[in-house]
Amino acid sequence: IAEKFAAIGDHLIITGRRKDRLEKLSNDLQKDFGIKVLPLNFDVRDKETVFGEIQNLPEQWRSIDILINNAGRSIRRAVHESSDRFHDFERTMQLNYFGAIRMVMNILPQMMIRRDGHIINISSIGVLANATRFSAYVASKAALDAFSRCLSAEVHSHKIAITSVYMPLVRTPM
């Protein structure tokens, strides 16, 4: 996603938990596309850090046009095999739902002032298909999807677009 935006000349703020990978991507994007990149190393599950990082952005980076919530965690396990693993559901919801909400709630106010912006939440085709053995993941993405639909109705008059992208299964280390 970052490369696609960089290819059309957009300047980027990229976030992530793995500082080495974040810095490498930042350097590669700047070198390959000649754009400005601001890498922010934090975990969207940490409410105070998200708030601090967004509120303390340098002035030239405060006008965020597009927010893409792409952080995700998946657990592939049947519900009946999860009875002793409630923490898996909590951790999945913490990242996939609350992490995205934290980002929205910190960036939305300046979009509303400008009366412009686009929030893109990466969801899952499982929300539409009821995928077996992905109940924690699909539930968290369904919550984000419902939030997105409600938010869309609320911010439409402020010229802010909300998009959910229903990704199919993607082979990742996750």
Provide the descriptors you would attach to this structure in a database record.
single chain, 174 residues, alpha/beta, 3-stranded parallel β-sheet, two-stranded parallel ribbon, 5 strands
Q: Could you please describe the fold and organization of this structure?
A:
The protein is α/β, with parallel strands linked by helices. Helix content is 48%, strand content 17%. The chain contains six helices and five strands; from the N terminus they run H-E-H-E-H-E-H-E-H-H-E. The strands form two sheets. A three-stranded parallel β-sheet has the order 3-4-5. Strands 1-2 form a two-stranded parallel ribbon. Helix 4 links the parallel strand 3 and strand 4. The longest helix is centred in the middle third of the chain and has 29 residues. The two termini are 18 Å apart.
